[in-house]
Amino acid sequence: MEIVPDTSVIIDGRVSERVRAGTYAGATIVVPEAVVGELEYQANAGRDTGWDGLEELQTLIELEADGEIEVEYVGERAEKSEIERAAAGAIDALIRDVAQERGATLFTSDIVQAEVAEAKGIDAEYVEPKGRDTESLQIESFFDEETMSVHLKAGTRPMAKRGAIGEMHYEIIDETVSTEDDLKEWSHDIEETARASPDGFIEIDEVGMKIVQFRDYRIALARPPFADGWEITAVRPIAKTDLADYDHAEELRSRLLERQRGVLVAGSPGAGKSTFAQAVAEFLVENDNAVKTMERPRDLQVGPEITQYTALDGDMAATADSLLMVRPDYTIYDEVRKTEDFEVFADMRLAGVGMIGVVHATRAIDALQRLVGRVELGMIPQVVDTVVFIEAGAVETVYDVTTEVKVPSGLMEEDLARPVIVIRDFETGTPAYEIYTFNRQVVTVPLDGAEASKSGVDQLAEGEIEREIRAAAEGPVEVDVQSPNSAIVYVDTNDISHVIGRDGKRIREIENRLGIDIDVRTFEDQPSTESESKTQGEIVTPEITTQHIIVPVEERGSGETVEVQANGEYLFTATVGRGGEIQVSRGSAIAEELERAIDREEMITVQ
Question: Distance between alpha carbon 257 and the CA centroid of its chain, in Å?
Fold first, then answer.
């Protein structure tokens, strides 16, 4: 008896299973080289199916050594083009040819393969694909009611983020160290369950990284060479809310329904931004709005009435073009981070679509400032007219954004009137910030509270002086304007000579250009307690290796969430590893932005 197995039953281990059961005792297992080529291709691409299939072939050789079967490899090896066209049946055709030439029985768990074989007069034996438990995952045992995310890595103890929104704690949940075999078993279970379940799918499948959606879990599966070890990160929402649960709910309802709006939902990681965005999305649907989402990967937990779109062919701009044909009333963009994201958000908004964008920010005003430089200043109120800042799961601040032609606060002369973006507290109507251009610079001026202790003129002067001094200093710079005609500049000791210049030439040139006397001092002379507290975060020097960009953050604790910036501009948010560093895999979009900043010799800070 000769049996020709196809790729499907080799991957499932069905051949060795039948040999051990006695069904194929003494048979000759004829393995087409096309099957070997396809399995090798899958294994090289980092797919578990390829490794499972190769393991089954090794098992068959062991069974042959025990005298239970004979194994014979025949046929021509598949060409790369045929392997790439496997989904179109190219490999299946080569396997059928071998069975037909040998007069053998074709063994398959692919119903289409079996039907085609019988139609061509080939003896075929079909077996149902292996069933799976599609209701649960093995790693679900690590979750309890307060667990937002589980973090598993080979060689470490399982960790989780647990607690209420805004009060999460990163903690050990099991003292048993996970092995690489554990991670492989869990990863295989996650992938196969997602494939078999109607509630799951694999959203991203790249070498070394897969993103899996299963029910309300979003799971990242990382392995070398993308990561330095096997790792699983599983995240799920721990709360689902209604818009009525938040402060200012009635006012926000009226505002959203009055006309299509441009809204930024801002907050730090874990603050509850996505939970609020979900509540807004479902409120809009309930009030007769067509709502879609743009997510990469899809993460929001919304009802079936809301279609969730991801990046079309890896490009959110292409997704936006498609959405304009669909004509939604509102689109939820989760999350808006890179320059191209802001550009897509702005294009959609200016096309008349209501937009809700989820943005990482540590203050409400920071979310709006991230538009500066990415969107023409005068267009910002047309792109974003509302900012909602979420803190610990609650609406902390709501800003109304408008444009007025006026003299900016703190300036006096009427000929200084210009378009000014006014950011008002939504509840009181009190102006909180103004954004405008002055001497070719965009400035943001706070108008109330402690931040407003300096006038707009002082802040403009500080900005001009800091820009000039930074051109000569390598380290941090702080400016303290003493009067309209004098200022003190604080720099590192190593930068004093560079800033002053030979015989004071450089600092005199700066003073002449700005028309102000400048006293240059070191941070040690500063009256405050710690000079570093005056800088915008801890200055770091990233190290570029062949696989990673390593950002050292020695003064931060393991598991702490930090923001990485270049010259004060947001780059990304990350969690500090156990070694007191952040590792960014090269080739990713984040790494490319960081490398460009390093190449431009921008100051990299962590806060």
Answer: 30
